[in-house]
Design goal:
Gyrase A, domain 2, mainly alpha, flat, two-stranded antiparallel sheet
């Protein structure tokens, strides 16, 4: 079957499954086109089954159309082209169409990137993400304590706030060990027990590699490694022991050998790695702030799409433990600023598409507070070019913050998680809260402005504007029927 025939089949199928707005994902196997549909009641089953190219349909987790080997790949490719180009639509594309396209991109990206490395990164993220609420809470308390101390107010309260903000951080390794064992199939409390060796004050009396250990040496990296070892020891012991001895011997072997390995190897190695991470981040901003900010701010959104941003979570946590804040997060947060500026430009350029504009109005407040997924997957990424121009805005904002760091005005975050305006209470820097807020705020404004300008002038082709505004709007005529159809 030729490409023309494949396209004809795709064009025939599309309206019979509810149109482009009803399709959330597109895939195929050896013989079947597999569609994720928002509403299966919109499918015209009789008309679909009557198509000569359709050999049958199957309703499972996806709606499956049997096309046969050979034909299915060609029809799937043509259907994707129809959906991405908007040719399968009879009116100007709406917010639902963009959301469907964004969902397809997201699903396809996940399928392409289900590699062992990325699966491992997701598991590491599963260890640290549950800790974020406590990190945020303790970070805000620490910022409050610092502000009161700088103002000279309520010294007794400042003294009390110290343990409140630092207690969790002092035991962070235990929580990391607990979650690591839980994520990798071990007994969580045994992972926490082995990791607790790292923060025990008595380790200062232990000598390893010719040096006395320091409580907390190795930090979350050491805790992660120690808990992973504990999981393996627990599995190995359970495999070789009779069930009658398991309850006594397995925990003992796990804690004993896991704890000794942490003391006489993992703490030292992980300590060196953690120190290198801290030195690298400091050097990066001190010597390459402009370039570092440009690259990190500009590439963070693509990293999120690929799942590679999860590798940064242990790095953020290590920097917070070592230096009290992570200097990388305020730079990476500029990617969200680029998205906000981009969305504002899309709002103005698509002035005749009420549906897309309504989506932007509802998603923009979340974007300002650092929740970017509604804008990314609902607006900028499905549109294509605006996603790139949003990254340009993020790069500009990151460069602004990076230059400030290079000039001695580094700004960090005392917790992981928030970005956008929500990051202001967590900011820290060598020159106080006000200076940190000024640098971060300047980066946000730069990201907003550059993201807006880049999108407004370079984010759309003439054809795209005509498609999303309606043909009449592109010719300069009154936005009559096409615009109302989109609404």
């Amino acid at each position: 079957m030729s490409d023309e025939k494949h396209r004809a089949v795709a064009e025939a199928i599309l309206p019979l499954v509810g149109g482009a707005a009803n399709i959330r994902s597109v895939a195929h196997c050896m013989t079947r086109l597999r569609l994720g549909l928002a509403d299966r009641s919109l499918v015209d089953r009789e008309a679909l089954g009557a198509l000569p190219a359709v050999l049958g349909t199957v309703e499972d987790d996806t709606y499956q159309i049997v096309l046969g080997p050979g034909a299915v790949a060609g029809v799937t490719a043509q259907l994707r082209r129809l959906l991405d180009s908007g040719d399968g639509l009879t009116t100007a594309p709406t917010a639902e169409d963009l959301a469907g396209r964004g969902a397809r991109i997201r699903a396809e990206a996940r399928a392409r990137n289900a590699t062992p490395v990325k699966r491992m990164l997701r598991r590491i993220a599963n260890i640290f993400v549950p800790l974020i609420p406590a990190l945020i809470g303790c970070g805000i308390v620490a910022a409050l304590s610092g502000a009161l101390a700088n103002l000279g107010w309520a010294p007794a309260l400042v003294t009390a706030l110290g343990p409140v903000s630092s207690g969790f951080m002092s035991l962070l390794a235990v929580f990391v060990g607990y979650n690591t064992a839980k994520e990798f199939g071990g007994t969580p409390v045994l992972g926490g027990a082995v990791a607790s060796v790292i923060v025990y004050a008595g380790v200062a009396k232990v000598e390893a590699f010719g040096h006395h250990l320091t409580p907390g040496q190795g930090g979350v990296v050491g805790a992660l490694l120690a808990a992973l070892l504990a999981v393996q020891l627990e599995r190995w012991t359970r495999r070789i022991l009779p069930a009658a001895l398991d309850v006594l011997v397995t925990p003992t072997v796990t804690v004993l050998f896991g704890g000794l390995a942490a003391l006489f190897g993992l703490m030292f190695v992980a300590g060196e790695v953690s120190t290198a991470i801290g030195h690298a981040a400091t050097w990066l901003l001190a010597h390459g702030g402009l370039l570092a900010g440009l690259v990190l701010g500009g590439l963070f959104l693509p990293l999120v799409m690929l799942g590679l941003h999860q590798a940064l979570i242990p790095i953020h946590t290590t920097l917070i433990q070592q230096q009290g804040s992570t200097v990388l997060l305020p730079i990476l947060a500029m990617a969200g600023a680029g998205q906000v500026g981009c969305a504002a430009a899309v709002y103005l350029r698509l002035r005749h598409n009420a549906s897309v504009r309504a989506t932007i109005r509802s998603a923009l407040p979340a974007g300002l507070l650092g929740v970017g997924e509604p804008l990314v997957y609902g607006v900028t990424l499905p549109l294509g070019r605006p996603f790139v121009t949003a990254c340009v805005g993020g790069a500009a904002g990151g460069a602004f913050v990076g230059v400030a760091g290079q000039l001695g005005g580094a700004v960090g975050s005392t917790a992981v998680g928030p970005s956008g305006w929500a990051l202001f209470p967590l900011l820290a820097g060598p020159h106080g809260m006000a200076a940190s807020a000024a640098v971060y705020g300047g980066g946000l404004l730069t990201g907003y402005a550059v993201g807006f300008l880049a999108t407004y002038f370079f984010g759309f082709t003439r054809e795209t504007l005509a498609e999303y505004n309606g043909a009449a709007a592109d010719r300069g005529l009154a936005p009559a029927e096409p615009a109302r159809a989109a609404e």
